Fold this protein.
Amino acid sequence: MSHNSPSAAAPALDIAGLESVYETLASAIDAVGPDKTELFLVKLALLSARQIGDAQLLATLVASAQKDL
């Protein structure tokens, strides 16, 4: 797996970009329905992990996402 350095990483999304991602996710979750939401989110996470290509970064993101639920 490749390990991206901070300088090689894609730029962070601004607020408008995050809002767009939120809207896309919310629409997709609504479209798949409650019975498939968990499967959809796991599939999305695995596809994202493959695209990111850094297992340690994904572990850090998972830990961040678990906080304050």
Observations:
- The helical segments are 15-32, 37-52, 55-66.
